[in-house]
Amino acid sequence: MKRLLAALLCTALPAPGATADRPAGIAAAEAIAKAALGENCDMNGMEEVPMAGPEAEGFAHSVYRFSYKPAYDPDGEDVQAELYLLFCGSGAYNIRNAVVLKTSNDDTPKLIAFAMPDVDYSYTDDNRNRLKAEPTVRGFRATPLLVNAGFDEKSRTINSHTAWRGIGDAWDSGEWTFRSGDFVLIRFEFDPTYGDPLPDVPESYVVYEAGR
Fold first, then answer.
1. d(CA 192, CA 196)
2. Could you report the per-residue pLDDT of 95-143, keeping only the tens digit for each?
3. For position 18, what pLDDT does the model report?
4. The pTM is what?
5. Closest CA to 206 of 194, 189, 192
6. Rounded to whole angstroms, how far apart are CA atoms 76 and 63?
7. In 3D, which of 140, 141, 138, 143 has the Cα closest to residue 120?
8. SS3 193
9. What is the Cα–Cα distance from 89 to 9, expressed in whole angstroms?
C-alpha cells in the first residue's frame, strides 16, 4: 500500500537541472504549444511567461512531476512524468491553457488533446433562459485548449471552467483524470441558460459522467 501511495503522489518541484524560476524543459513545452496552436497560444505577447506564484493570477506556467505504473507493464519500473500547464493567452474574463506532457519512456514531449462532448440543445425563445428539452450528447470532439484550467496533484485531475460571458451565469466545466499516460474525460457539466435562474429550470446539466 505504501508503495502504491508513493507512486501516486505528485509534487510541484522543479525538474532536475532547473532553476527555481525557470524549470528545465519549459522552453521546449512552450515551443510545442506555440507551433501547434499559433495565435491561439501567443501567450499575450510576453517574451517570458513567469512561473506560477501567489501574484501570477493565472498568467503563468506551472510544472508538476509525478510517477505512474504503465498499463502495459504494471510490475515494471515507474514512468516519470513532467506535466506543463501552460498559459496560452487571455480574453476579457477567461484564460486559455495548453498542457504538454513529457515522460521518461518518450523522448519527445507531446501536446495533450482533451475529449469534449458535443452537446445538442436549443432555447425556447430569444431570452435563452430555458431549454426546449434536456440537452443530449451527439458525439465527442478533441480540443488542445482548455479554459481557466487547473491541476489537482492528489487526484491527478485537470479541471476547466469556461465563463460564457463576464458575469458567469452561463458556463461549462470539465474534468479529466490521468490514467496510464493519458487524460480521460470523467465529467462534463454546463449551464447554458442566461440571466437569473428560473425556479423550474435546473441550475446546470451533467451531460457526461464516468466512473473514477
1. 12
2. 999 999 999 988 899 999 999 999 999 999 999 999 999 999 999 999 9
3. 40
4. 0.86
5. 189
6. 25
7. 138
8. coil
9. 30
